[in-house]
Specification:
The structure is a single chain. The protein has a single domain (2-244), classed as HUPs (Rossmann fold), CATH 3.40.50.620. The chain has helices at 37-51, 69-78, 94-108, 127-135, 188-194, 235-244, and strands at residues 2-6, 9-11, 33-35, 57-64, 82-87, 112-116, 138-149, 152-159, 162-169, 172-176, 199-202. The chain has 6 helices and 11 strands. By secondary structure, it is of the alpha/beta class. The strands form 2 sheets. A 9-stranded mixed β-sheet has the order 9-8-7-10-6-1-4-5-11, sandwiched between helices. A two-stranded antiparallel ribbon has the order 2-3. The protein is globular and about 65 Å long. The structure holds adenosine monophosphate. Residues 6-8, 36, 38-39, 42, 62-64, 94, 97, 115-116, 118-119, 122, 124-128 line the site of adenosine monophosphate (AMP). Its cofactor is AMP.
Amino acid sequence: MKILVPVKRVVDYNVKVRVKADNSGVDLANVKMALNPFCEIAVEEAVRLKEKGIASEIVVVSVGPAAAQEQLRTALALGADRAVLIESADELGSLAVAKLLKALVDKEQPQLVILGKQAIDSDNNQTGQMLAALSGFAQGTFASRLEIADERATVTREIDGGLQTVSLALPAIVTTDLRLNEPRYASLPNIMKAKKKPLETVTPDALGVSTASTVKILKVEAPAARSAGIKVGSVAELVEKLKNEAKVI
Ligand code: AMP
């Protein structure tokens, strides 16, 4: 079984992001970039399926600038077999990314596509769902458990009210939630080996996909600064302040 894992290059989660002065977006100049944490979980799950003998090949794909090769190499070091960079210097919206991934799905014919539930830069939480719609595959989103048997994927989903288990016919789309697994660290020998694994670059044009966007970002703003908190000396003081200052009780 071939597994396709789309991975995104995003601002490292430890970085405190700054909004550009013209409010056109987040300032990415000299900022540390990393593999999106939910994508790391997706790669880990695919690697575990390969270790169990269920998957035979793991292909990772990223849509982004040439620099996204770094994140693809990280995914190769974590255990993916080969990588595809769909190179685009422009920041693309989810629908354009999903269309590009659909073209790659047609070419690669994976039985399973594992994506992150969301990219932590834009928090869109929609690429997997859009890819499922475009490809006509079944989808199991927010997975906290995944089992493959008898040509089906059983996915336990984290939903508001608890857990929901769905059974999907393959080929299928799964998106990862936080509790699915704990990703491993790449070992130094695997980082060295990853440098020699195949990494192919293609353009959106070569895939026959138009990346023209129907969505325009009008403005990006930082959240309002919060005023400093205070420490109260006792429960009585807390109750007094909630009653008389904050007027919430
Ligand atoms: P989003 O819908 O943007 O929150 O992203 C959800 C998931 O879609 C991510 O965790 C990735 O698996 C995939 N994805 C989103 N954008 C890209 C991209 N530019 N390249 C590859 N995969 C992506």
